[in-house]
Amino acid sequence: MLKIPLIKEYLFEVVEKNEENLKIIDCLINNKITDEKIAESTNIKINTVRKILYKLYDSHLATYERNKDKETNWFTYTWTFDNENIVSELSFRHETKISKLEDILESEENNSFYICPKDENRFDFAVALQNKFKCPNCSTELNWHDNEYRISIIKEKIDASISEFNDFEKLIKNLKT
Ligand SMILES: [Zn+2]
């Protein structure tokens, strides 16, 4: 799971990107394991392990069960990584990103824009008209802005995002089978 780029990227947003944290997560993924066991097998201080586990917990990426040890009367915490949640969080992010890009694309395709040759501020038709096609900042005459290039960049971004997410879904599917 940690080999999947989008997953790794997201985990490193939640916890700081370093070797220790990677070891802790690697130990937790696909295991039901206590914080002590993680500390033991990674050789990382228990406080550091707990700090990372709670960060994951706060981001809904890990859960724990609390049990009382009958001999010592101490509580043990058995942790699991939430595979389903990270996948649904990443799907949600993807949907949001695509719909934002599509809104921008729609606005570029359905409006005309005017640009100030001096300071390169851009205005839509309504604002340009309101200002009699003069820049509201510097009064320079506005030029019509050819946004074909901008549109092609947005389309490329949408395509790239979709294919990145398709790859991600394939990798996830392969994990499950
Ligand atoms: Zn201007």
UniProtKB/TrEMBL annotation:
TM ranges: none
SUPFAM superfamilies recorded: Winged helix' DNA-binding domain
Annotated GO MF terms: DNA binding; translation initiation factor activity
Coiled-coil region: none
BP GO terms, sorted: regulation of DNA-templated transcription; transcription initiation at RNA polymerase II promoter
UniProt record similarity statement: Belongs to the TFE family.
HAMAP family: TFE_arch (MF_01909)
Listed name of the protein: Transcription factor E
Organism of this sequence: Methanobrevibacter curvatus
